[in-house]
Amino acid sequence: MPTPxxxxxxxxxxxVGLDAGLGLDADLDAVRARYRAERDRRIRPEGNSQYRRxxxxxxYYADDPYAATEFxxxxxxxxxxxxxxxxxxxxxxxGARLRQAGVESIRVIEKGGDFGGTWxxxxxxxxxxxxxxxxxxxxLEEIGYVPKWKYAPGEEIRQHARAIGRHFDLYRDACxxxxxxxxxxxxxxxxxxxGTDRGDRIRARHVxxxxxxxxxxxxxxxxxxxxxxxxxxxxxxxxxxxxxGDADGNLDRLADKRVAVVGTGATAIQCVPHLGADAxxxxxxxxxxxxxxxxxxxxxxxxxxxSLTPGWQRxxxxxxxxxxxxxxxxxxxxxxxxxxxxxxxxxxIPAAGPTDLPPGERERLEEVVDLRKMNEIRARVDAEVAxxxxxxxxxxxxxxxxxxPTFSDHYLQTFNRPNVTLVDTADSHGVERITENAVVVGGTxxxxxxxxxxxxxxxGVSGILSGQLPVYGRDGVALSEAWQRGPRTLHGFYSHGFxxxxxxxxxxxxxxxxxxxxxxxxxxHVAEVVAEARRREAPYIEPSAEAEAAWVVTIRxxxxxxxxxxxxxxxxxxxxxGRPRERSEAYGEGPVAFHALLRRWREEGGMSEVVGxxxxxxxxGEAEAVEAEGTE
Length: 632
Ligand code: NDP
Known about the structure:
Layout: H1 12-15, H2 28-42, E1 51-53, E2 79-85, H3 89-100, E3 106-109, H4 118-121, H5 133-136, H6 140-143, H7 154-167, E4 180-186, E5 191-196, E6 201-209, E7 216-220, E8 231-234, H8 240-243, E9 258-262, H9 266-278, E10 281-286, E11 292-293, H10 302-306, H11 312-324, H12 337-348, H13 361-384, H14 388-393, E12 406-407, H15 411-414, E13 420-424, E14 433-434, E15 438-441, E16 444-447, E17 450-453, E18 457-458, E19 471-472, H16 479-482, E20 501-503, H17 515-535, H18 545-558, H19 563-567, H20 591-603, H21 623-628
Helix pairs in contact: 3-17, 12-13, 17-20
The structure holds NADPH dihydro-nicotinamide-adenine-dinucleotide phosphate (NDP).
């Protein structure tokens, strides 16, 4: 039997059943105590306010290194069918699906100099998508493309985004290097007036907001950060002029440089191997280690690609989504690190409903499965990292989905290089201080020439709620005002009082790790609603107040209770920096059920709730929510 655990004593892995086979006899109390101790070391009372936005004095961190700075054009004051805010995969999918639905004039308005969103901004060395390319890259069958690798490099994905733009003729009316600053509904003309930072006043019948979820780079609020006199940038604006090389590495200008990387999330896992290979010396400042699983990238098998039959991408995407959200499939088509833990879960936990197990047993088995996965991840660190102290520091001590899992066959090995130093910052809650020429941790000054922030993005900051994108609907009512007591939508897409306005995103909708799949389902839905409105010659699309209220109740009633799980996690953006939200704003039954619900709604007369003025009633299949509405 494992001995009682003390987080500071001896070899902690021995205490929690690292060698316990399936782990069914593991001392879960000891594991929980260890995880809790690691969480407590890192919790910061300021939560999210520990971070700085890349604006004002830090605005240069967000400058576009790829687009021409001298770009200028005359303001636009024309009239279009649909304005799409954002040219990442969300905006591109909305444009593509609307085009397929017969919409002629579509204008995508995008801050960057081209399509791509995340893949436009992030071009750091080593960039790849860690979701399988065949399910992540959208519209593969429509474009007639099969990615070259199981996990695609960023540049291939960016080129695919551009190919979508060309294929669906979205370049024709697009506005790049343009930020939408205001949306205002014109009650008389029944259209939106879209204001931008280039002085445009574009009139659009419909507006789709596809601003993305990880689009605002953030910096840690480290004291003295502004005093650093060396070179510095954020990973989402990689400065190849300084480092040399490209996304494949070969950062030859770093050969004589001392480089600091702050952060060890999914981005750092990909760029650190290149920095380690090319920098004179690399210091990696880690607060919480990531779980780093096997990658196993491989080129696409040409014979397999040739054997694909129509509908293959939809089948593969659905198969992955079902599996990673706990459903049953006959065959695991993707078969990778994302699906392996759910398969193990299936092996240990009967597929039948919770009532078939004694109370608490399902949760216990889930914990055992989790422990087994994390033990594998920790054992891999020992196998790959030569120095035992460094290996210990690289081991993640939390449950698997507390932080975003990562995958690499090169990251851990980088710490075996003599020119690479791992600096643990957990006890000081992150980097303590930055001076003119050094990064300070535990009183030690690490002198460096360059600091690279791999510190991620402001997550879930809705432009509407934060006031960055003011939206005024019928009678000049601000959307932020209408949502003062919480978001109110039907299916996450539209709100009463804001006709012809659609939002893509996880709010009161679905979410999943292959997020582009979710965006595609959303784009298809929006396009079908717009097409139906055109068929019916409806003056506008707007959910009835009743249907909206019913959906808000449904979201509340079905909200997944993640609080207890997240409260035990080390802080990060998954748990709102250690302050988990009391209730989730996503559809609690998961994306597979949500997509089925949308399909039913479309087939069974739901359109009448949004197409045509004065429509009333609840969504098909959600009658119980209407009954509960009075209690809201
Ligand atoms: P993350 O938010 O995941 O990571 C930020 C890192 O910075 C964390 O390690 C964090 O530590 C660290 N950090 C923050 N403040 C400090 C501080 N004061 N001192 C020291 N360290 C600090 O950002 P990423 O850019 O890595 O990833 C963001 C997301 O982008 C991913 O989660 C993923 O969703 C997506 N992504 C997807 C990829 C893909 O292949 N599909 C690839 C890359 C990113 P701590 O954990 O302790 O807070």
